Amino acid sequence: MRIATDFEGARIDVLSAESPSNVRLAVPADPKHAKFRMWFAFAVEDAADEALSVAIENAGSCTWPRAWTDYQVCASHDGQTWTRVPTVYADGVLRFTDTPRGPRSLYAYYAPYSNAAIDGLIARAEAAGARARSLVETPGGHHVSLVEIGNLDPGAPALWIVAQQHPGEHMAGHWVDGFVERLLSDDDDARKLRSEACVALVPRMNPDGVALGAHRTNAAGIDLNRQWLAPEGAAPEVGAVRAAMLARGCAFFLDVHGDETLPYVFVQGAEGVPMRTPWMVGLEAAFCEAFRAASPDFQTEYGYPKDPPGQGNLRIASNWAADTFDALSYTLEMPFIDNANAPDPELGWSTERSRALGAAMVTTLARMLPKLGGKRT
Ligand SMILES: [Zn+2]
To answer: Is 284 among the catalytic positions?
Structure first.
């Protein structure tokens, strides 16, 4: 047998792998930031039909060790469809078992959504009339792209959605896939949204991080979601998107993420921004009601603590956008583990549920549109 890391985003340290029944691995830190250590992805080759037993021995030293409780490792035997495999976390070690069904099986923290898949998604949007352009070429030779879908009149409200600032949060890639598929469809809400608004989508903020197999940072080791107030030169991804937002204006902002520990879908609002206005507060209540109606997975009971008034961190994208544009603005979090309100013992929080949540955002935004495009009071 062999552990292979010959694909985009593959990342694991092999301690020993002489026998499928006793594979010892460790999760490496992000390439340029020792504090972040969560993402892993690797292939097991030449172990078909053998009983595979893997121990990730430094799981307890990862950034959020609580993330491993109730977590199950993601696996794919065909490189396309993903399932979960029996996993136990104890004494700081994450152990899983599986039986590879072919010459090569993949294992990862979450089912990856590749940079090539993002390119395909952009091409599909362009073929359906969207306008796409590269905002910046990254140090790794990738592009941070803006895809404008819908009404391209400069007077139409711009609804900004950015995803995967944190590269390991691949549910955000699947979310974007589901969102774009629904937005380009003949669905009534999609047609309304396309006709009355411009959806300004940045489907992948951090393609370098994805390619490198980083969990949280870009090629320079920077957490992009702490860069929005005054981006450094080493975070050109944020600098370019921020400049495009300032040039176009912003009537709504959503930043799509995954959360390692909380088993719920939730949003983090802009409660703490200095410029918080009654306009924002009124829109938040309407948004949460519309999102709950559109998706059975969204809830508002569990989430992060709300920032005290005036103490929001403006280096975080959604806070910066709310404060800068007086706009409805949220960070959206999906679980790595599962939705504890409606668990799926087989698949956990699956790529399909990520996609369905993305599709539900089309309905949510169509409901919100009369308010978002309305006159501030
Ligand atoms: Zn994140």
So the answer is: no
| Per-residue tens of pLDDT for the chain, all 377 residues | 999 999 999 999 999 999 999 999 999 999 999 999 999 999 999 999 999 999 999 999 999 999 999 999 999 999 999 999 999 999 999 999 999 999 999 999 999 999 999 999 999 999 999 999 999 999 999 999 999 999 999 999 999 999 999 999 999 999 999 999 999 999 999 999 999 999 999 999 999 999 999 999 999 999 999 999 999 999 999 999 999 999 999 999 999 999 999 999 999 999 999 989 888 899 999 999 999 999 999 999 999 999 999 999 999 999 999 999 999 999 999 999 999 999 999 999 999 999 999 999 999 999 999 998 654 54
- The Å distance, Cα 103 to ligand 1 centre, comes to 34
Sketch out the chain's domains with CATH numbers. 2-108 (2.60.40.3120), 115-372 (3.40.630.10)
Please, which residues have CB within 8 angstroms of residue 316's CB and are 6 or more apart in sequence? 225, 226, 228, 331
Q: Is 104 helix (H, G, I), strand (E, B) or coil?
A: strand
Among residues 196, 301, 333, 346, the one annotated as catalytic is 333
Q: Annotate 253-271 with DSSP letters as a single string.
A: EEEEEEESS--SBEEE--T
pTM score > 0.85 for this model? yes
- Cα 174 to averaged position of ligand 1 atoms, centre (Å): 14
3-state class of 278 per DSSP? helix
